[in-house]
Amino acid sequence: MNPSFNWNERQVLVVLPHPDDEAFGFSGTLIRYLSYGIPVAHVCATLGEMGRNMGKPPTANRETLPLIRRRELYESLLRMGVTQLYLLGQHDKMLEFEDPERLAAQVRQIIEEVRPSVLFTFYPGLGVHQDHDALAWAVVRAVSTLEENLRPRLLCRAVKENAEEVLGPPDIVHDVGDLLSHKLAVIRAHHTQVFQMFPQFEEQADDPNSDLCRWFSRESFWEYRLK
Q1: What is the pLDDT of residues 83-112, one digit of tens each?
Q2: pTM
Q3: Domain carrying residue 30
Q4: Which of 101, 189, 213, 214 keeps 20 to 30 A from 149, CA to CA?
Q5: What CATH code is carried by the domain that includes residue 99?
C-alpha cells in the first residue's frame, strides 16, 4: 500500500463518464476506502448507450442497452457498498461536444453538495476515450473555480500506454491484490460489457503471476495539480 494514500479522508467523490469505468481502474481503491468507513459518492455522466457489446447471447439492443447498463451500474455500486449516485444524463460519446462551462457547472454543483476531500477521475488528455478526457477537463475546470480551501485533491487514472513517459511515475500505486475476488465481482456486474472476459477470470484469478492478476491487482493514480 502506497503511503501517499490518506485513509483518513473525509469524503471521496468519483466522477466518470460511463457505467463500468468505476469497476476496472478504481473499484479496489473505493472498496478499501469504504472498508475504513469513508463515504464514497459516485457521478456517472452517461449510461453508455453507444456501447458496442450487447451480451452473449444478446440480452440488449440499442434501445434497451442504456436501461440495462444503468441496472448494471446499480449492481456494481451495490457490490462495492456505494450508496450515493449522481447521474448527469449526458449522451455517450458526445461529451466532447457539450458546452464545457455547462458540464463543469454540473460537476461543481455536486462537488459543493458532497464536499469531498479527494476526487477521482481520468487524467485529462491521457484517458484514451474522448469522453474520459472531456469529463476530466470539466472536473479540472470545476475544481479550479472553487475557493482554494474547498478544492479536493485530484487523483487521476491515466490510460495511455505512454503515461509514465509523459507524467513520470504515478504518485500512488495501490496494491489491491487482497481485494481481487471482490473487484472481479464488481466487474462481473457489467455483464453485457465483460461477458467475454469471464473464461479468463475463471482460468487466471487464482494465479498471482497471470496477466489478469497483474492488470487488476494494482491501481495507479497521478495527482493533478492546478496551476
Answers
A1: 999 999 999 999 999 999 999 999 999 999
A2: 0.93
A3: 12-222
A4: 101
A5: 3.40.50.10320
